């Protein structure tokens, strides 16, 4: 018996997808990617705050769906490209 394909199957496992991207996408969708909140539960890290924004706990939802670090990323791009602060928006 073959399990039915899920709605996100074509986004991750089609032949044109890069295998590394497919694997990370699958881990994110299944909430199995190792983020700092999961590593803290295993005892691998002592602090589960986000290393990108330091505003909250690093989790799958925060990294991939809540876009908390979007402003700091835009600021980093602006300063590295020499753009005037506030001109670049993501």
TrEMBL record:
Task: Note the InterPro entries from the entry.
Answer: RVT-Znf
> Which part of the chain is the Reverse transcriptase zinc-binding domain?
4-65
List, alphabetically, the Pfam families matched. zf-RVT (PF13966)
Tree of life domain: Eukaryota
Name of the protein in question: Reverse transcriptase zinc-binding domain-containing protein
């Amino acid at each position: 018996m073959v399990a039915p394909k899920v709605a996100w199957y074509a986004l991750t496992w089609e032949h044109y997808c890069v295998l590394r991207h497919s694997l990370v996408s699958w881990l994110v969708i299944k909430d199995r990617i190792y983020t700092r909140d999961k590593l803290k539960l295993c005892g691998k890290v002592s602090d589960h705050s986000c290393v990108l924004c330091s505003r909250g706990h690093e989790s799958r939802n925060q990294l991939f769906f809540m876009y908390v670090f979007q402003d700091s990323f835009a600021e980093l791009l602006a300063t590295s490209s020499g753009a005037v602060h506030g001109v670049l928006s993501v």
